[in-house]
Structure to design on (108 residues):
């Protein structure tokens, strides 16, 4: 269940990172409230995950999924660059996340 918590936390991480863009420096009230709520939820679920998982692995997976998800969203919806090297490095992050998960000493 701990890995599920980290995954949920990562989805909320993606949400708040994207919410920052829409909050326009916290001048858009609705987007700002969404961003703050998803930040809190992200941290709560991460905290639940690290109760039984190693903190370093959990944090790396949480931020890695957040980076990949936010970058993909930016490519799809904000017309951010999608050149070969950028995609290659995103794939390297994904490989690192998978590697950390596979090498985790916890089976919870």
């Amino acid at each position: 269940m701990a890995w599920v918590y980290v995954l949920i936390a990562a989805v909320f991480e993606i949400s708040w990172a994207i919410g920052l863009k829409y909050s326009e420096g916290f001048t858009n009230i609705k987007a700002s409230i969404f961003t703050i709520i998803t930040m809190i939820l992200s941290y709560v679920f991460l905290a639940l995950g690290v109760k039984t998982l190693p903190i370093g692995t959990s944090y790396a997976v949480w931020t890695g999924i957040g980076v990949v998800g936010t970058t993909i969203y930016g490519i799809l919806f904000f017309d951010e660059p999608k050149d070969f090297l950028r995609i290659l490095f995103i794939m390297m992050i994904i490989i690192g996340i998978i590697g950390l998960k596979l090498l985790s000493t916890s089976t919870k």
About this structure: The mean pLDDT is 94.
